[in-house]
Write a structure and sequence with these properties.
The protein has 230 residues and is an alpha/beta fold. It has a single domain, classed as NAD(P)-binding Rossmann-like Domain (Rossmann fold, 3-Layer(aba) Sandwich), CATH 3.40.50. It contains seven helices and seven strands; from the N terminus they run βαβαβαβαβαβααβ. It has a seven-stranded parallel sheet with strand order 3-2-1-4-5-6-7, with helices on both faces. The radius of gyration is 17 Å and the shape is globular.
Length: 230
């Protein structure tokens, strides 16, 4: 199968890309620095892609089709985290997060969903968050972006229920990635979590879904580390 992974240069996206390649899939690994993050290897096409740029989604789809002629899997994984109290949160960064996680990802999902419906085959995996199912103080903007992804996923799942196109939302708790690299205090200390999830844990769960029989639909997968109370 042919897959497109966004946010593929690190963290969960990188783990998904590696797992797909191990399975023998062909992968378009999209990210702002994808060409610097991957060495040349068979069945891998790194594509430098900033989803906030005008036309980025259309170019990504066209590049995928030009090289592979088809695509079966889409992994919507690009994202950032902006959170904090009212007094200090950077509203410009919040709006940029919204443009990436909502506007750009919506455009990405609809573009590939349209193609998948036309050929009656495909699977879209959307990396949301446990904060796409509930929220907490200081995280309203980030949770709101994930709630939007969850709503779109649920609507598309119902719209496509009688087709061979599947939609799955991945809802991780705290994962050890570079998204928290600039934080003064890592959230694992704030949440009293001794061992966070690893990106490979998320990739393994996705592979489990891919290996289900075609008549089995998995709309949501939530993964939490031990001790994550939410």
């Amino acid at each position: 199968m042919e897959a497109v992974v966004t946010g593929a240069t690190s963290g969960i996206g990188k783990a998904i890309t590696d797992s797909l390649l191990e399975r023998g899939e062909s992968v378009v690994a999209a990210g702002r620095t994808a060409s610097q993050s991957y060495q040349v290897q068979p069945r891998l096409l790194p594509v430098d892609c900033d989803l906030l740029e005008d036309g980025a989604v259309d170019r990504l789809f066209q590049q995928t089709m030009a090289v592979y002629g088809d695509v079966d899997l889409l992994f919507v994984n690009a994202g950032v985290i902006e959170s904090g109290p009212i007094e200090t949160i950077d509203i410009d960064k919040v709006c940029s997060m919204s443009r990436l996680k909502v506007e750009s990802n919506f455009r990405l999902i609809y573009t590939f969903a349209k193609y998948f419906k036309e050929k009656d085959k495909g699977h879209i995996f959307i990396t949301s968050s446990v904060l796409g199912t509930k929220t907490r103080e200081y995280s309203g903007a980030y949770a709101g972006c994930n709630f939007a992804l969850e709503a779109l996923a649920e609507s598309l799942r119902m719209e496509l229920a009688d087709t061979n196109v599947q939609i799955t939302c991945i809802e991780p708790g705290l994962v050890q990635t570079n998204l928290h690299a600039g934080w003064e205090v890592h959230p694992k200390h704030l949440l009293n979590i001794s061992k966070t999830l690893q990106p490979e844990d998320i990739a393994d769960a996705i592979i489990d879904v891919l290996e289900k029989p075609s008549h089995v639909r998995v709309p949501k997968v939530m993964l939490l580390p031990k001790g994550h109370k939410i």
